[in-house]
Write a structure and sequence with these properties.
mainly alpha; Growth Hormone, Chain: A; globular
Length: 405
Protein backbone atom coordinates (compact mmCIF):
# COMPACT_ATOMS: atom_id res chain seq x y z
CA UNK A 1 0.00 0.00 0.00
CA UNK A 2 2.81 2.37 0.93
CA UNK A 3 4.77 1.56 -2.22
CA UNK A 4 1.72 2.12 -4.41
CA UNK A 5 0.98 5.44 -2.74
CA UNK A 6 4.55 6.60 -3.25
CA UNK A 7 4.41 5.63 -6.90
CA UNK A 8 1.30 7.70 -7.36
CA UNK A 9 2.60 10.65 -5.36
CA UNK A 10 5.86 10.96 -7.28
CA UNK A 11 4.35 12.09 -10.59
CA UNK A 12 2.19 14.69 -8.83
CA UNK A 13 5.21 16.04 -6.96
CA UNK A 14 7.22 16.11 -10.17
CA UNK A 15 4.45 17.92 -12.03
CA UNK A 16 4.50 20.64 -9.39
CA UNK A 17 8.01 21.31 -10.58
CA UNK A 18 6.53 22.27 -13.95
CA UNK A 19 4.39 24.96 -12.31
CA UNK A 20 7.34 26.44 -10.39
CA UNK A 21 9.62 26.47 -13.43
CA UNK A 22 6.79 27.98 -15.47
CA UNK A 23 6.42 30.72 -12.83
CA UNK A 24 10.12 31.49 -13.19
CA UNK A 25 9.75 31.52 -16.96
CA UNK A 26 6.91 33.98 -16.50
CA UNK A 27 9.30 36.44 -14.88
CA UNK A 28 12.05 35.96 -17.47
CA UNK A 29 9.47 37.29 -19.95
CA UNK A 30 7.93 39.80 -17.52
CA UNK A 31 11.05 41.97 -17.47
CA UNK A 32 11.51 42.32 -21.25
CA UNK A 33 7.74 42.78 -21.71
CA UNK A 34 7.87 45.61 -19.17
CA UNK A 35 10.74 47.16 -21.08
CA UNK A 36 8.88 47.10 -24.40
CA UNK A 37 6.18 49.32 -22.87
CA UNK A 38 8.73 51.65 -21.29
CA UNK A 39 10.94 51.88 -24.38
CA UNK A 40 8.83 54.55 -26.17
CA UNK A 41 9.03 56.71 -23.01
CA UNK A 42 12.76 56.12 -22.67
CA UNK A 43 13.23 56.94 -26.35
CA UNK A 44 11.25 60.16 -25.95
CA UNK A 45 13.21 61.21 -22.84
CA UNK A 46 16.58 60.54 -24.49
CA UNK A 47 15.53 61.81 -27.93
CA UNK A 48 16.18 58.51 -29.74
CA UNK A 49 15.35 57.75 -33.38
CA UNK A 50 13.61 54.54 -34.51
CA UNK A 51 16.99 53.08 -35.48
CA UNK A 52 18.48 53.91 -32.06
CA UNK A 53 15.50 52.32 -30.31
CA UNK A 54 15.95 49.21 -32.46
CA UNK A 55 19.67 49.16 -31.56
CA UNK A 56 18.83 48.86 -27.85
CA UNK A 57 17.17 45.50 -28.48
CA UNK A 58 19.81 44.53 -31.03
CA UNK A 59 22.48 44.77 -28.30
CA UNK A 60 20.44 42.44 -26.10
CA UNK A 61 19.97 39.88 -28.84
CA UNK A 62 23.59 40.03 -30.05
CA UNK A 63 24.77 39.31 -26.51
CA UNK A 64 22.33 36.41 -26.39
CA UNK A 65 23.49 35.09 -29.75
CA UNK A 66 27.15 35.15 -28.70
CA UNK A 67 26.59 33.60 -25.27
CA UNK A 68 23.78 31.11 -25.90
CA UNK A 69 25.87 28.30 -27.36
CA UNK A 70 28.57 28.36 -24.64
CA UNK A 71 25.75 28.78 -22.14
CA UNK A 72 24.12 25.59 -23.43
CA UNK A 73 27.43 23.74 -23.09
CA UNK A 74 27.77 24.95 -19.51
CA UNK A 75 24.26 23.69 -18.75
CA UNK A 76 25.13 20.24 -20.12
CA UNK A 77 28.17 20.17 -17.80
CA UNK A 78 26.45 21.34 -14.59
CA UNK A 79 24.20 18.89 -12.79
CA UNK A 80 22.36 21.45 -10.62
CA UNK A 81 19.89 22.85 -13.13
CA UNK A 82 17.82 24.50 -10.38
CA UNK A 83 20.78 26.63 -9.29
CA UNK A 84 21.28 27.76 -12.89
CA UNK A 85 17.60 28.73 -13.15
CA UNK A 86 17.76 30.88 -10.00
CA UNK A 87 20.97 32.54 -11.18
CA UNK A 88 19.52 33.23 -14.62
CA UNK A 89 16.35 34.83 -13.25
CA UNK A 90 18.29 37.21 -11.00
CA UNK A 91 20.69 38.06 -13.82
CA UNK A 92 17.81 39.00 -16.11
CA UNK A 93 16.07 41.29 -13.61
CA UNK A 94 19.01 43.18 -12.10
CA UNK A 95 20.18 45.08 -15.26
CA UNK A 96 16.75 46.69 -15.57
CA UNK A 97 17.30 48.19 -12.11
CA UNK A 98 20.57 49.69 -13.38
CA UNK A 99 18.72 51.23 -16.34
CA UNK A 100 16.46 53.08 -13.93
CA UNK A 101 19.36 55.03 -12.39
CA UNK A 102 21.15 55.81 -15.68
CA UNK A 103 20.75 58.84 -17.94
CA UNK A 104 23.14 57.74 -20.68
CA UNK A 105 22.36 55.91 -23.92
CA UNK A 106 25.52 53.78 -23.71
CA UNK A 107 24.45 52.49 -20.27
CA UNK A 108 21.09 51.54 -21.72
CA UNK A 109 22.89 49.49 -24.40
CA UNK A 110 25.21 47.84 -21.85
CA UNK A 111 22.37 46.81 -19.54
CA UNK A 112 20.39 45.47 -22.47
CA UNK A 113 23.39 43.30 -23.38
CA UNK A 114 23.61 41.97 -19.80
CA UNK A 115 19.97 40.86 -20.00
CA UNK A 116 20.79 38.94 -23.17
CA UNK A 117 23.63 37.10 -21.43
CA UNK A 118 21.57 36.19 -18.36
CA UNK A 119 18.67 34.90 -20.42
CA UNK A 120 20.83 32.29 -22.14
CA UNK A 121 21.03 30.09 -19.03
CA UNK A 122 17.28 29.70 -18.49
CA UNK A 123 16.09 27.89 -21.60
CA UNK A 124 18.97 25.38 -21.97
CA UNK A 125 18.50 24.41 -18.32
CA UNK A 126 14.69 24.33 -18.15
CA UNK A 127 13.54 22.98 -21.52
CA UNK A 128 15.68 19.79 -21.90
CA UNK A 129 15.21 18.88 -18.23
CA UNK A 130 11.43 19.17 -18.44
CA UNK A 131 11.42 17.18 -21.69
CA UNK A 132 13.44 14.35 -20.13
CA UNK A 133 11.31 14.19 -16.99
CA UNK A 134 8.10 13.98 -19.06
CA UNK A 135 9.09 12.22 -22.32
CA UNK A 136 5.58 11.03 -23.22
CA UNK A 137 4.06 14.49 -22.71
CA UNK A 138 6.91 16.57 -24.05
CA UNK A 139 4.78 18.83 -26.24
CA UNK A 140 2.26 19.49 -23.45
CA UNK A 141 4.85 20.15 -20.73
CA UNK A 142 6.88 22.48 -22.91
CA UNK A 143 3.65 24.24 -23.84
CA UNK A 144 2.95 24.84 -20.14
CA UNK A 145 6.46 26.22 -19.76
CA UNK A 146 5.78 28.53 -22.71
CA UNK A 147 2.43 29.49 -21.20
CA UNK A 148 4.39 30.85 -18.23
CA UNK A 149 6.27 33.09 -20.65
CA UNK A 150 2.98 34.14 -22.27
CA UNK A 151 1.56 35.08 -18.85
CA UNK A 152 4.56 37.32 -18.18
CA UNK A 153 4.34 38.83 -21.64
CA UNK A 154 0.60 39.43 -21.24
CA UNK A 155 0.30 40.76 -17.69
CA UNK A 156 3.44 42.94 -17.64
CA UNK A 157 2.26 45.46 -20.27
CA UNK A 158 -1.14 45.67 -18.59
CA UNK A 159 0.36 46.24 -15.14
CA UNK A 160 2.95 48.73 -16.34
CA UNK A 161 0.41 50.61 -18.43
CA UNK A 162 -1.68 51.08 -15.27
CA UNK A 163 1.31 51.94 -13.04
CA UNK A 164 2.51 54.64 -15.42
CA UNK A 165 -0.45 56.71 -14.26
CA UNK A 166 1.12 56.93 -10.79
CA UNK A 167 4.84 56.19 -11.22
CA UNK A 168 7.61 57.21 -13.57
CA UNK A 169 9.34 54.59 -15.71
CA UNK A 170 12.42 54.85 -13.48
CA UNK A 171 10.41 54.09 -10.35
CA UNK A 172 8.76 51.13 -12.07
CA UNK A 173 12.04 49.39 -12.95
CA UNK A 174 13.16 49.69 -9.31
CA UNK A 175 9.93 48.22 -7.90
CA UNK A 176 9.98 45.57 -10.61
CA UNK A 177 13.02 43.79 -9.19
CA UNK A 178 11.19 42.45 -6.11
CA UNK A 179 9.19 39.57 -7.68
CA UNK A 180 12.30 38.26 -9.47
CA UNK A 181 14.23 38.08 -6.20
CA UNK A 182 11.37 36.25 -4.45
CA UNK A 183 10.94 33.63 -7.18
CA UNK A 184 14.73 33.17 -7.48
CA UNK A 185 14.87 32.19 -3.80
CA UNK A 186 11.86 29.87 -4.20
CA UNK A 187 13.53 28.10 -7.10
CA UNK A 188 16.79 27.87 -5.19
CA UNK A 189 15.00 26.47 -2.13
CA UNK A 190 12.77 23.91 -3.86
CA UNK A 191 14.74 23.07 -7.00
CA UNK A 192 18.31 23.92 -6.00
CA UNK A 193 19.43 20.32 -6.61
CA UNK A 194 17.04 19.78 -9.54
CA UNK A 195 18.71 17.74 -12.27
CA UNK A 196 18.28 14.67 -14.45
CA UNK A 197 21.47 13.03 -13.25
CA UNK A 198 20.70 9.62 -11.77
CA UNK A 199 17.58 9.17 -13.94
CA UNK A 200 19.22 7.41 -16.86
CA UNK A 201 21.06 10.48 -18.13
CA UNK A 202 24.84 10.53 -18.10
CA UNK A 203 26.63 13.67 -17.12
CA UNK A 204 28.45 15.33 -19.99
CA UNK A 205 32.26 15.29 -20.05
CA UNK A 206 33.80 18.61 -19.16
CA UNK A 207 36.57 18.61 -21.79
CA UNK A 208 36.12 21.51 -24.27
CA UNK A 209 37.00 19.19 -27.18
CA UNK A 210 34.07 16.89 -26.39
CA UNK A 211 31.68 19.83 -26.31
CA UNK A 212 33.07 21.22 -29.56
CA UNK A 213 32.68 17.87 -31.35
CA UNK A 214 29.14 17.56 -30.00
CA UNK A 215 28.34 21.05 -31.27
CA UNK A 216 29.76 20.30 -34.74
CA UNK A 217 27.74 17.10 -34.84
CA UNK A 218 24.57 19.04 -34.11
CA UNK A 219 25.29 21.61 -36.80
CA UNK A 220 25.91 18.88 -39.39
CA UNK A 221 22.52 17.31 -38.71
CA UNK A 222 20.12 18.40 -41.47
CA UNK A 223 16.97 18.37 -39.34
CA UNK A 224 18.63 20.39 -36.56
CA UNK A 225 20.08 22.93 -39.00
CA UNK A 226 16.75 23.48 -40.76
CA UNK A 227 14.77 23.79 -37.52
CA UNK A 228 17.26 26.25 -36.05
CA UNK A 229 17.30 28.40 -39.19
CA UNK A 230 13.51 28.41 -39.45
CA UNK A 231 13.27 29.40 -35.78
CA UNK A 232 15.69 32.25 -36.42
CA UNK A 233 13.39 33.75 -39.06
CA UNK A 234 10.34 33.23 -36.82
CA UNK A 235 12.16 35.14 -34.08
CA UNK A 236 12.85 37.98 -36.52
CA UNK A 237 9.08 38.26 -36.91
CA UNK A 238 8.42 38.20 -33.18
CA UNK A 239 11.18 40.55 -32.03
CA UNK A 240 10.31 43.16 -34.66
CA UNK A 241 6.66 43.13 -33.62
CA UNK A 242 7.47 43.41 -29.91
CA UNK A 243 9.68 46.45 -30.50
CA UNK A 244 7.61 48.31 -33.09
CA UNK A 245 4.01 47.33 -32.37
CA UNK A 246 3.92 49.56 -29.21
CA UNK A 247 5.46 52.37 -31.28
CA UNK A 248 2.82 51.93 -34.00
CA UNK A 249 0.01 51.94 -31.45
CA UNK A 250 1.44 54.99 -29.69
CA UNK A 251 2.50 57.18 -32.61
CA UNK A 252 0.23 56.11 -35.47
CA UNK A 253 -2.96 55.29 -33.56
CA UNK A 254 -2.55 57.70 -30.63
CA UNK A 255 -3.10 55.07 -27.91
CA UNK A 256 -2.29 55.78 -24.26
CA UNK A 257 0.25 53.57 -22.41
CA UNK A 258 -2.62 51.69 -20.76
CA UNK A 259 -4.34 51.07 -24.11
CA UNK A 260 -1.04 49.84 -25.56
CA UNK A 261 -0.71 47.51 -22.58
CA UNK A 262 -4.20 46.17 -23.24
CA UNK A 263 -3.31 45.44 -26.88
CA UNK A 264 -0.13 43.60 -25.90
CA UNK A 265 -2.11 41.72 -23.26
CA UNK A 266 -4.47 40.60 -26.02
CA UNK A 267 -1.49 39.46 -28.14
CA UNK A 268 -0.03 37.37 -25.33
CA UNK A 269 -3.35 36.09 -23.94
CA UNK A 270 -4.12 34.63 -27.36
CA UNK A 271 -0.68 32.99 -27.32
CA UNK A 272 -1.40 31.63 -23.83
CA UNK A 273 -4.54 29.94 -25.15
CA UNK A 274 -2.80 28.59 -28.24
CA UNK A 275 0.28 27.03 -26.59
CA UNK A 276 -1.31 23.98 -24.85
CA UNK A 277 -3.57 23.33 -27.84
CA UNK A 278 -0.63 23.35 -30.25
CA UNK A 279 1.56 21.28 -27.91
CA UNK A 280 -1.09 18.60 -27.38
CA UNK A 281 -1.99 18.39 -31.07
CA UNK A 282 1.68 18.13 -32.04
CA UNK A 283 2.08 15.17 -29.66
CA UNK A 284 -0.76 13.42 -31.47
CA UNK A 285 -0.64 14.69 -35.06
CA UNK A 286 3.05 15.48 -35.54
CA UNK A 287 5.14 18.63 -35.20
CA UNK A 288 5.37 19.49 -38.89
CA UNK A 289 1.65 19.83 -39.55
CA UNK A 290 1.16 22.21 -36.61
CA UNK A 291 4.23 24.33 -37.38
CA UNK A 292 3.48 24.87 -41.07
CA UNK A 293 -0.19 25.67 -40.58
CA UNK A 294 0.57 28.13 -37.76
CA UNK A 295 3.23 29.92 -39.79
CA UNK A 296 0.96 30.15 -42.82
CA UNK A 297 -1.84 31.69 -40.77
CA UNK A 298 0.62 34.12 -39.15
CA UNK A 299 1.62 35.37 -42.60
CA UNK A 300 -2.02 35.82 -43.63
CA UNK A 301 -2.83 37.82 -40.48
CA UNK A 302 0.22 40.07 -40.95
CA UNK A 303 -0.89 40.89 -44.49
CA UNK A 304 -4.32 41.89 -43.18
CA UNK A 305 -2.66 44.06 -40.49
CA UNK A 306 -0.60 45.87 -43.14
CA UNK A 307 -3.74 46.51 -45.18
CA UNK A 308 -5.85 47.55 -42.15
CA UNK A 309 -3.33 50.17 -40.97
CA UNK A 310 -4.47 52.50 -38.19
CA UNK A 311 -8.08 51.33 -38.12
CA UNK A 312 -10.20 49.84 -35.28
CA UNK A 313 -10.11 46.36 -36.86
CA UNK A 314 -6.33 46.38 -36.36
CA UNK A 315 -6.81 45.40 -32.70
CA UNK A 316 -8.79 42.30 -33.71
CA UNK A 317 -5.88 41.17 -35.87
CA UNK A 318 -3.50 41.58 -32.91
CA UNK A 319 -5.37 38.80 -31.10
CA UNK A 320 -5.30 36.51 -34.13
CA UNK A 321 -1.60 37.17 -34.58
CA UNK A 322 -0.81 36.16 -30.99
CA UNK A 323 -2.77 32.91 -31.33
CA UNK A 324 -0.86 31.64 -34.36
CA UNK A 325 2.59 33.18 -33.77
CA UNK A 326 3.03 31.99 -30.19
CA UNK A 327 1.64 28.51 -30.83
CA UNK A 328 4.87 27.75 -32.66
CA UNK A 329 7.42 28.08 -29.86
CA UNK A 330 6.88 24.92 -27.78
CA UNK A 331 6.33 22.76 -30.87
CA UNK A 332 9.61 23.85 -32.44
CA UNK A 333 11.44 23.24 -29.16
CA UNK A 334 9.99 19.75 -28.76
CA UNK A 335 10.78 18.98 -32.40
CA UNK A 336 14.41 20.06 -31.99
CA UNK A 337 14.90 17.95 -28.84
CA UNK A 338 13.62 14.91 -30.74
CA UNK A 339 16.02 15.59 -33.63
CA UNK A 340 19.09 16.20 -31.42
CA UNK A 341 21.05 13.56 -29.42
CA UNK A 342 19.57 12.95 -25.96
CA UNK A 343 22.78 13.91 -24.15
CA UNK A 344 23.06 17.25 -25.97
CA UNK A 345 19.77 18.81 -24.89
CA UNK A 346 21.29 21.93 -23.34
CA UNK A 347 23.63 22.50 -26.27
CA UNK A 348 20.83 22.04 -28.83
CA UNK A 349 18.61 24.55 -27.02
CA UNK A 350 21.60 26.88 -26.73
CA UNK A 351 22.10 26.65 -30.50
CA UNK A 352 18.38 27.27 -31.05
CA UNK A 353 18.22 30.34 -28.83
CA UNK A 354 21.57 31.58 -30.13
CA UNK A 355 20.20 31.55 -33.67
CA UNK A 356 16.96 33.14 -32.50
CA UNK A 357 18.93 35.87 -30.74
CA UNK A 358 20.94 36.47 -33.90
CA UNK A 359 17.75 36.89 -35.93
CA UNK A 360 16.24 39.06 -33.22
CA UNK A 361 19.38 41.22 -33.22
CA UNK A 362 19.28 41.85 -36.96
CA UNK A 363 15.54 42.38 -37.38
CA UNK A 364 14.84 45.47 -35.17
CA UNK A 365 17.61 47.49 -36.82
CA UNK A 366 16.46 46.54 -40.33
CA UNK A 367 12.85 47.30 -39.41
CA UNK A 368 13.94 50.60 -37.84
CA UNK A 369 15.76 51.63 -41.01
CA UNK A 370 12.74 50.74 -43.13
CA UNK A 371 10.44 52.64 -40.77
CA UNK A 372 12.67 55.73 -40.79
CA UNK A 373 12.56 55.73 -44.60
CA UNK A 374 9.05 54.50 -45.46
CA UNK A 375 7.03 54.84 -42.23
CA UNK A 376 6.05 52.32 -39.57
CA UNK A 377 3.61 50.55 -41.91
CA UNK A 378 6.57 49.12 -43.87
CA UNK A 379 7.46 47.05 -40.80
CA UNK A 380 4.43 44.77 -41.35
CA UNK A 381 5.57 43.80 -44.83
CA UNK A 382 9.04 43.08 -43.46
CA UNK A 383 7.74 40.66 -40.79
CA UNK A 384 5.43 39.00 -43.31
CA UNK A 385 8.47 38.18 -45.44
CA UNK A 386 10.39 36.72 -42.48
CA UNK A 387 7.60 34.35 -41.42
CA UNK A 388 7.09 33.18 -45.03
CA UNK A 389 10.80 32.31 -45.26
CA UNK A 390 10.57 30.46 -41.94
CA UNK A 391 7.70 28.35 -43.29
CA UNK A 392 9.40 27.58 -46.60
CA UNK A 393 12.47 26.29 -44.77
CA UNK A 394 10.36 23.58 -43.09
CA UNK A 395 9.91 22.02 -46.53
CA UNK A 396 13.62 21.17 -46.50
CA UNK A 397 13.27 18.82 -43.53
CA UNK A 398 13.60 15.05 -44.02
CA UNK A 399 10.22 13.46 -44.78
CA UNK A 400 10.18 11.43 -41.56
CA UNK A 401 10.79 14.49 -39.35
CA UNK A 402 7.86 15.84 -37.39
CA UNK A 403 5.71 12.73 -37.55
CA UNK A 404 4.07 11.49 -34.34
CA UNK A 405 5.97 8.71 -32.60
Amino acid sequence: MTTASAALAAPRAAFREVWLVSAGHCLTHWYPATFYILLPLIGQELGLSYSQIGLVMTCQFIAGAVSNIPGGMVVDSVARKGFLLALSLFWIGFPYLLMGVSHHYWMLLACSALVGIGNNLWHPAAIPTLAKRFPARKGLVLSMHNMGGNVGDAIAPLAVGALLGALTWRQIVVVNLAPGIVVSFLILGYLGTWSVIGEGTERQPSRPWDHLMGLLGLLRDRAVAVLVTSSMFRSMTQSTLLVFLPLFLTREMGYSPFAVGMCLFLLQAAGFAAAPIAGHLSDRMGRGRIVMSSMAMTAVVLVFMAIAGASPVFVFFIGLLGFFLYALRPVLQAWLLEAAPQNRGGTSIGVLFGAQSLGSAIAPVLAGMLSDRYGLGAMFWFVTATIVVANLLILLLPKEAGKPA
